[in-house]
Amino acid sequence: MIFASMQVEKLLLPLLWQLVLIILAARIAGVLFRKIGQPEVVGEITAGLLLGPSLFGWLAPATFQMIFRPTLEGFPDGTLHWVFVGISQVGLILLLFIVGMEFEFSHLLSLGGSTALISLAGILLPFGLGIGLSFLVFELVSNKPDTPENFWSFSLFLGTAMSITALPILGRMMVEWKVSHTKLAVVTITAAAFDDAAGWILLAGVAAFVTSDFHISSTLLMIFYTLMFGAFMIFAVRPIAIRLLNNFIVDGEISVTGLAVTLSLLFLSAIGTNLIGIFGIFGAFVFGAVLCDQVAFRKAIQVKLKDFVTAFFLPIFFAYTGLRTNIGSLDSLQLWLIAGGIIGASIIGKIAGCGLAAYFSGFSVREASCIGVLMNTRALMELIVINLGKDFGIISDSVFCMLVMMALITTFMTTPILKTMVSSTEFEPILKQ
Question: What predicted TM-score, i.e. pTM, was given to this entire model?
């Protein structure tokens, strides 16, 4: 028993050092970036990248190895890595549950003609550019044999990754800027909500395609199971959960028992989509989404979970992404040119697609430009998507690095560019931030 306890302590010590470093670095970077007018999430993402092999591992390889990849006597190689992965995945499940609860389906129901056009342009043009780019770069960046199945999984994933808009981050930005109730904000959030919903559907389809070993019949069966899961969550789980969970809310607070029941239902939902083969986070998102109209429950559960998830689990996920990102994997001019092409196409696809659609829908040039720039924000949701692509083996280390750079650049550029074009629009309060 004493030997077993000592072994646990051997594993725990380096894990605790990692957590201290990750949490503090993410918080400090988040605060610093907030002071220069950037969302905190940009600083947290940056902190994760700086802690990885791209900077820390490059400047101090021995120290990096000692902290993040130590050799633990008595444990198989990679044990600490998988503990870290497990924690980050649980954090993603909790995060996607919160994102699902914040998803405003009323935006989708009120989707007007102009917003629908902006949404479709924001999906179709980046998706088409992603498919087109894959024909040019697949053989240069793929780490798999050049087969039709691998090509189409790569191209569909690249198109999907370029179509994502960071809905939660956009919402938080607009609240911070005090413009969330303007017409421009409502149109942008509605279009982003549609894009995100479409993006998750596309991603689920790609996941089913890859998991089924590229068999059309198996893919269709997985999609059918996914649709049945969604129907089951809406028509069976939702009414039971509403009746059950609201009983645990007293004076705006949810009891410990209510929290335990919520977490159990959440993890069961994640188990459901995990068994289907499309990742547990989809189940977590759906469970949150079917409860998004339960305002009292949403506020009560957020009080219990949101700050802890933001302070603890999110930095771990960013660090996990950073530890998987190695800018050194772009070891040739050709790869850097490909990275520039992917990032450039993703920016053009969103800004031009959404901006032109907004302009032809009756918005002024400045207003349309604002909508296009905001829709180009990718942030956290993009990181989730590309980590799934990495886990599936769809993308190589170099492409993973390119897409992480895309997520960071498209988010970082939003605020400074927006401030140059908001004059004489409803977004003018942004200039005071």
Answer: 0.81
